[in-house]
Design a protein that fits this description.
4 strands; mainly alpha; 3 domains; flat; about 70% helix
Amino acid sequence: MNVRLLGFDIEITMGFWLTAVLIGFTQAMQNPMYIVMWGLILLVSVLVHELGHAIAFRTFGVSSSIRLHFLGGATFPNVVLPLTRPKNVIVSLAGPFAGFLLAGVVWGVRELVPIQHPGLAQTLRIMLWANIGWSIINLMPVLPLDGGHVVEHALGPRRYRITLGVSAVVGTVIAILCLMSRNFIGLYIFGSAAVQSFIALRETGAAVRASKEASEPARAAGEPLAPETARALSAARDALDNGQPERAIEMAKGVLEGRERNGARPQARALPEALSILGWAHLALGQTAEAVEVTSRLTRMAHADPALVANVAAARGDDEGARRLLEAARAAGDERKEVFGPLIQILLRKGEPARAAALALDCAESISAEDLRTLASMVTAEGAHHWAGRLYEAIFKRERTADDAFEAARAFARATDPAKAIELMRRAVQAGFTDAKRVWADEALVGIDELEHVLPRSS
């Protein structure tokens, strides 16, 4: 069932209605009228909660849609826009506080309007306490509830494991209290949330350990590497970094065969790194089958580098699997180009240019200006003009090239942000841009008459 309300697209799934009927059945003792009443209360309450999120998104310039599902509802931003962490906190809090507002309205009606009909009086009473209770539940610091997202945004992505730890512990405690009080709905909500948080915490921890082992192989446990083995691995890494994958493969295979030690059995500590080098080298040569075989062997003997596993998955065409691994690595704090580079490419292939641009901006210091320009051009072609403007602006701040500021101005103009376009055009002129004819002939800048004060037509 799809409806539109206050400018928002709203999907109400069959799962939501089944949940409403189930709750109504357990609360209303099989009275059909009260089952309908409970369904309406849940519909209005959950919808108001999600509208709180959606209106907050709209306030910050983000369009969104709403979906009511089996476990309640969710509000999905349709594009990624530059929300700061404080704004994300506000969006998360807007849902519960919309519920409190509805409860306040219901309380006011009960206090100011004489209600004679017992059914209506009971409906208002249940709606009052349902909204207060549901809003309080949503403020608990447990993912995926709003309170959990507040903690997540307040701490930031670098402390995501702390967020998961808080969510797991608090969810467990509340689930135990619900069990003791025989509140089985609360037990299900918080128990399942705690389990999901524990699983995510374990997976994120594994990603952190694997990333550290991949980036700091010298700290791996075991016997010290023999000097000749260390030199061979270092030479193999250098060959890989210098665009010589064939040489890297030859040297890594030599380590696996113990050639540098006259055929002696290879050291266990050297095997994971040698295999990782082999995997990356095979990928560089487009030898997917060989990379899959090496990665499979590496996974069986050690914590495989999640970036390598993800890149192999992407090479096999498994973009979804690769994306999950790469996003988990990012959440674990892995900032290597082997993580964000393929993730940007996957997002572009999936038709998510705004997310790709946002990720590139987050990692801009590790991306060349030329690659950022290429990405900005691709994002422009996909119509994500705001993000193209931000990319060109980031390049300009680094390179101080007037043309980059000009391209940023054009992108912001296309994104219907004339104030930002004028600002970037002014910076372009300050950097030496003087081609007034080019500016006034550009369709993207048509209609922004204030540019006359920045670069007059007669210049």
